[in-house]
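Hello forum,

I keep getting stuck at the same step: I have a sequence, I want structure tokens, and every attempt I make locally crashes halfway through. Rather than fight my setup again tonight, could one of you with a working pipeline run this one for me? It's a single chain of 248 residues.
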Amino acid sequence: MNLLSVRNLVKRYGGLLATDHFNMSVETGETHAVIGPNGAGKSTLIAQLSGESRPSEGSILFDGKDITQVPVYRRARMGLARSYQITSVFNEFSALQNVMLAAQAQLGHSFRFWSPMMRSRSLRESAESSLDLVGLGSRIDVCVADMAHGEHRQLELAMALVSNPRLLLLDEPMAGMSQGESEQMAALLAKLKGSCTMVLVEHDMNAVFALADRITVLVYGKSIACGSVESIRSSAQVRAAYLGDDDD
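Reply #2:
Ran it on my machine without issues. Output:
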């Protein structure tokens, strides 16, 4: 069953089509990767799926419901969560405080209730569980400013997971990571496979091929191919457009 269906999605910026009549379906429990060269429109697509950017045309269905015009906060409450290409965390707070804030925001509470939030056992337990899940259980009281870049990415994932999302939108979760950090993140996402439906935008092809159930290839806002890892890996059209043709 499709959890997410994207139909003829168009995003115009003046005369530029950043998303060009794009179609995609994501099944429940699937890890669906979206790959393409720089400027292909991948982050624009993720922004439309999350509600941060309104499509010019087309529709987005989540669990059969049309959410094309639904704002970000309502999509979050329906079970969509997003991580960003650039980390979005509060450096002056601890890892635990960051995740508790994310949990509080998902519930629709105002940030001004800082003290009550910090006394909330349920928020703390949810945050600690999420941090444990991403491998930061021993770092909960560490100030984010003192954490490594890879840990920032793990923390951001914990902030997305604390709401128990039905669909997780991942925009280059391994951006800026060392090889060791990328491998650690890939192992973490592998643990989530099946239990959480994921749309993964990523340039690390080793990670994509290891994690994805299906792959959509995006070039100039258009889907030029969609299929299994093997079908995408062996596609001459995809090699020529993105992966690099060995015959050249």
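The longest strand covers residues 2-13. If your local run keeps crashing, start a new thread with the error log.
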